[in-house]
Amino acid sequence: MRRTALQIGAAALIFLTSAASAYARCENYTPGPKPQNTGRDIVGKDLDQILDRGFIEFAVYEEFPPYSWEEGGKARGVDVELGRMIAEDLGVEARFNFVAASETVDADLRNYVWKGPLIGGRVSNVMLHVPYNSDLACRNELVVLNGQYFNEKIAIAYRRDAYPEDPPVPAYFRFDTVGVENDTIADFYLSSFAQGQMQANIRRYSTPQEAMAALAAGEVKAVMGAKSQLEYGLTSALDLHMPPLLGFSTSEWTLGVAVHHAYRPLSYAVDDAIRAVVENGRLQQVFQDYGLSFTPAKW
Question: How far apart are CA 149 and CA 45, in angstroms?
């Protein structure tokens, strides 16, 4: 069927409008210098090379239950299981590089996806558990953020005997003790809430597991942090809820993967594999196996 000039013009207008919208997301961001002549050994492998060699490497955070950790020499966790399902979809073996969290996500992307750390280590083909955020994507031009697989939220775990009627909200912590992982958004939020009135009641721990153990032992009345990490530490004497959080701009976020920008076919293949296991319920079953609730990403 022949298309009229009006139809062609309309199609062109839609394309230009879409393109303008795409550029608008990063219009206030000034691109930085891009590294040149970078060796292929430190920028990953393309999809064909991965298929030829028979394995794919995932960067996952070390000592990060319930998402990724090693136990008895075996990799465990939700992110580890997801990596195995992605590798199964591609028809290759999954291998995991356990990495330490840096000061920022930007540094993690630099160290583990597109450049490599200054001392030791190397980049991986795919990094799991990366927050999907527009500003983050604009700042990190050398990676592609894709493959969103679940939504995380801030929650409050509490002792049932301490709050037999109503679950606690942040205002309660002006009088009650609350545990947080040190230097996390829950820590920052409670430290600044109500002009610092809660400072005396905040107990800081190195990990969410330590905070939840303290809650189970009765050392604090509540713990605030990422819902999945709190769920993993629940006992029969504890419960959890997600109240509205006044003034909390980032109480919910989407998690996905990061791939070097030069390997977009790999990014697309990983995205397809993730979408399949979300839609067929396999990923939800993994969450349930670890005692976690599952909130799918909002594509």
Answer: 23
